[in-house]
Design brief:
Blueprint (H helix, E strand, L loop, with lengths): L7 E8 L3 E2 L8 H4 L10 E9 L7 E3 L8 E7 L10 E8 L14 E3 L2 E8 L13 E9 L3 E3 L17 E9 L4 E7 L10 E4 L10 E7 L2 E4 L2 E2 L1 E7 L13 E3 L6 E5 L4 E7 L5 E6 L6 E3 L6 E9 L3 E9 L1
Antiparallel strand pairs: 1-3, 2-24, 3-17, 4-13, 5-12, 5-14, 6-11, 6-17, 7-10, 8-9, 8-12, 13-16, 14-15, 18-19, 19-22, 20-21, 20-23, 23-24
């Protein structure tokens, strides 16, 4: 039987509900781009792929979960990720080696800074030992800031769901085709141990053809094992809904100046995102009827995220005239 050296891919559906920000940090971003045509209770079509697929190797890569600073790039040819064409890549996951039979970390592991960048790039066979040379066009920072991985949230390599811990992007990345470069820069965690991500070896049949990786070491940039990675994506589905869960609504819509929020909840924060998932406006609120001054926004369609005093959030679409 011929092995699938590209990826294992699946369609999926997720119901959009009000999320608790304390337990679901950033997960609502995976859905905000889907709100445009759907009512408050909807099914959002998406997909994910596991790369490099059915390759029976259990190499190690001390990159994503290291307790010392790391900078590395993952290069993926366009063919294995054609599934994601014109979709928004919203998160990624790595996994531990099969031989690593304990979950990680033993206690919460905090990275002072954890940054993820996506961009187009050169083909994997043309990878250079120069980070800038591997990038074509500009990089998009999709995740930044400190990161805490809760105790035991990265499953053992032999678990039934080894990709359970997810790096959720602050800004989803629209993949428009071509080779993909994922670059990660972090300061190292405060954990007493580093754990290896499962990877394929540098001399693998597909490593260097469809996939390649490099990382920064003391001696300079060198070739790295390519880590197994799950990429999650959602579709940009358009625009329609104006009323959301629990009686939330916004008016007038379309709006020229002040946008008002009707709700029984006590709203403490308002955030506005454009259709690319970028935050363009934020505002604190301490009034019974929240209002947002939208006069600084250009004409177009936006997402308004509202957060209540308990940390719950929900979002809806509005149009700026």
């Amino acid at each position: 039987m011929k092995k699938n050296y590209f990826f294992i891919a699946y369609p999926f559906s997720d119901s959009f509900v009000i999320l608790n920000r304390k337990r679901s940090r950033g997960l609502w971003l995976m859905a905000l781009l889907l709100i445009f045509i759907l009512p408050s209770n909807f099914k959002a079509q998406g997909s994910f792929g596991i790369l490099p697929g059915a390759v029976n190797e259990d190499g190690a890569f001390q990159g994503p979960y290291s307790n010392v600073p790391r900078r590395f790039q993952i290069l993926i040819a366009n063919a294995p990720i054609s599934l994601f064409l014109n979709k928004y890549i919203s998160s990624i996951s790595f996994r531990l080696q099969d031989s690593h039979t304990n979950s990680w970390p033993l206690s919460d592991a905090t990275f002072g800074s954890y940054e993820i960048y996506l961009s187009k790039g050169v083909t994997p066979p043309n990878m250079q030992m120069n980070f800038a040379a591997n990038i074509t066009g500009s990089q998009t920072m999709v995740k930044s800031g400190s990161l805490t991985i809760p105790a035991g949230s990265v499953p053992a390599g032999n678990s039934s769901n080894p990709y359970a811990y997810t790096f959720v992007f602050d800004t989803p990345y629209l993949y428009t085709g071509g080779n993909l470069v994922i670059e990660i820069r972090h300061t190292g965690s405060n954990s007493s141990t580093s754990v290896p991500a499962k990877s394929i070896y540098t001399n693998s049949v597909v490593n260097g053809t469809y996939f390649s990786a490099c990382w920064q070491l003391d001696a300079g940039i060198t070739v790295a094992n390519f880590p197994f990675i799950r990429i999650n994506a959602v579709e940009n589905l358009g625009v329609k809904s104006v009323t959301i869960d629990d009686g939330f609504s916004v008016y007038p819509n379309p709006v020229k100046d002040n946008l008002y929020v009707k709700t029984d909840k006590e709203i403490t924060e308002l955030h506005v995102f454009n259709s690319a998932g970028q935050k363009v406006l934020s505002q604190k609120n301490n009034t019974k009827i929240p209002q947002l001054n939208s006069s600084s926004l250009s004409k177009g369609t936006y997402i308004l995220q509202m957060i209540d005093k308990e940390g719950n959030s929900t979002s809806t679409k509005f149009i700026k005239e």
